[in-house]
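So, can you check?
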Amino acid sequence: MNFRSLFGAFSNDLAIDLGTANTLVFAKGKGIIVNEPSIVAINKITNKVCAVGKEAKEMLGRTPGNIVAIKPMKDGVIADFDVTEEMLNYFIRKAHNRNHLISPRIVIGIPSEITQVEKRAVRESALRARASEVYLVEQAMMAAIGAGLPITEPSGNMIVDIGGGTTDIAVISLSGIVYSRSVRLAGNEMDEAIVQYIKRKHNLLIGERTAEQVKIMLGSASPLDEELTMEIKGRNLIEGIPKTVTITDTEVREALADCTATIVNAVRVALERTPPELSADIVDRGIVLTGGGALLRNLDKRLMEETGLPVFLAEDPLSSVVLGTGKMLSDMALLKRVSLE
């Protein structure tokens, strides 16, 4: 090992947004180097990993009996310990060009209302995937940093991070979280709501990948200016044969009504629990939305109508958490202040 690669081994720190839907990895000095679905395909006979990430997502709902596509993260926490470890291992190696000798320092974003047992599971998975040190930080705080909010100042910043498994809401001031709440309802629940609605209304069974496409193409939180339609294919439950149905944005909005109402409600509760001085700041600065769920059409408009506050979408909602976590790699002092024990 020459001097350069030895020196390089110390700057291989990684920031990971271990998400329910997607896992993003940020390397110091390089930016985001991995952005793939949190899915692992495993051969049940040999117990070997066949594919991880994008390749595994292609297999969702299409695997033969001996292969299972597993989503090891549920509601923002580890549901399958061994598979998460395999997944982390794969992403860390991918980030380091398959170099096995590197033991990076890793900062991982986790939901705010996570138990000690769940924290330990995340930490141990990372350590067993060859990390030298592991720091855990709250996703809402990282999303705020990634969205460019001035979190170190003595003023209130409100962030709503709608991910795949959880919606994290936090009010931040002086590098600390004044109020935080994690609702285990986000993108995945929206997909499931679409599946159930189409099953009820059209007697059509669709897969989760199709439901996700419907949400992205037609999903909205309040009426749109022009009607959108989309053809979806699935299995007709009465005749048992494949069928195509055309659905509209109005139907999808109806399907998502409960999910959006829950998120709006959680934001209102957060505003009620915020100290008055910080409420005054939020009136001036507004609410910032991040996470994939923030891309739901008119969600900002709906929140604005319901709260009367200005609502802004972060510049790159999908990457806010990992960008904020990445900033921690070059600010060890702040990292030590915000990391969870």
In short: The longest strand covers residues 176-183. The chain is about 40% helix and 25% strand. Residues 1-10 have pLDDT under 50 and may be disordered. Residues 51 and 118 are 25 Å apart (CA to CA).
